[in-house]
Amino acid sequence: MLYYNKNRVNKKHIIRVLVLFSLILLTSINPDASRIGSRVYSFITKPITLLTTKVSKVTTDAIDAVIGTKPNRDMVNKLTKENEELKSKVNNLEFVLNNQEYLKQSIKFKELTNTLNANLIMIDNDSKFSQFMIDKGSLNGVNIGDEIISSYGSNETNTLGSLVGRVIEVNETTSVISSIYDDKYNITFEHGKSNTIGVIRNRNNGYLEGYMLNKADIKVGDSVYTSGTGGLYQRGLYLGKITEVKMSQDGLNQLVTILSPVNFAKLYEVFVLRGDN
């Protein structure tokens, strides 16, 4: 049995030697045979090579994504910060360019009045600008009933400031404002030329609608002011200009439509007209 196995091993060895010798002889005789061998080898090893390369790339990308190099990460963070700063500067510049007239009026108003300026920090969600909140409260001397005005100014009507609303709730650092568009309150007004009194009772698409208590010679473009009657606002605060005058259907009341110069959609800063002012 041992002799048989030994012979079997010798036979295998002789076969390997013969095959190897044949390949060497064939290659020396025909060079194309070596290319065939290479192609066979390449065909066999190509899937393994591709798999190894893919695994290596995925591993490298994962490590770079999680860790990266510190200089690269520092540079990215620096560029991101600079980009945010540039965006902020551009936004501020656009605000200044788009609101030049508003900012001029605001500066002029601060110079000529002794009011408390405040910024809007919250507006109600009904899109009518009925109420909003400012960043000043009792710690700043704000009280319920104080009037809120804008920095609107007009040389044509010799007007400085336009009525925005009144304080209805005061906290330590904030206050809630009821605007002139809040339909919970009627506003009495006075026609600038005839001193005739009227009442605003409706708000419609940004316009104030009311009626005159007595008929008067009123024309489109005339100015109206708060009358001081009713105790809601003091007398003489500018409300706006009349855009329409007509009679009611029964012919008994003279109806007027008033447009405020205050653009509530772009109202950022207001002024508190406190009781001692």
Give an account of the 3D structure:
By secondary structure, the chain is an alpha+beta fold. Helix content is 38%, strand content 29%. The chain has helices at 2-29, 32-66, 70-98, 100-112, and strands spanning 116-123, 131-134, 147-154, 159-170, 175-179, 187-191, 197-204, 207-212, 223-226, 238-247, 254-259, 269-273. The model has no long low-confidence stretch (mean pLDDT 76).
Write the layout of secondary structure elements.
Blueprint (H helix, E strand, L loop, with lengths): L1 H28 L2 H35 L3 H29 L1 H13 L3 E8 L7 E4 L12 E8 L4 E12 L4 E5 L7 E5 L5 E8 L2 E6 L10 E4 L11 E10 L6 E6 L9 E5 L4
Antiparallel strand pairs: 1-2, 1-12, 2-5, 3-4, 3-12, 4-5, 6-7, 6-9, 7-8, 8-11, 9-10, 10-11
Helix content range: 25-40%
Q: How would you sum up the major sheet? A: 6 strands, antiparallel, barrel
**How far apart are the termini?**
125 Å
Q: What is the helix/strand order?
A: HHHHEEEEEEEEEEEE
| E-strand count | 12
Mean of all residue-level pLDDT scores = 76
**Mind telling me the C-alpha Rg?**
43 Å
Class based on secondary structure composition and strand pairing: alpha+beta
Characterize the overall form. Answer: elongated
Keywords:
six-stranded antiparallel barrel; single chain; 12 strands; 277 residues; alpha+beta; elongated
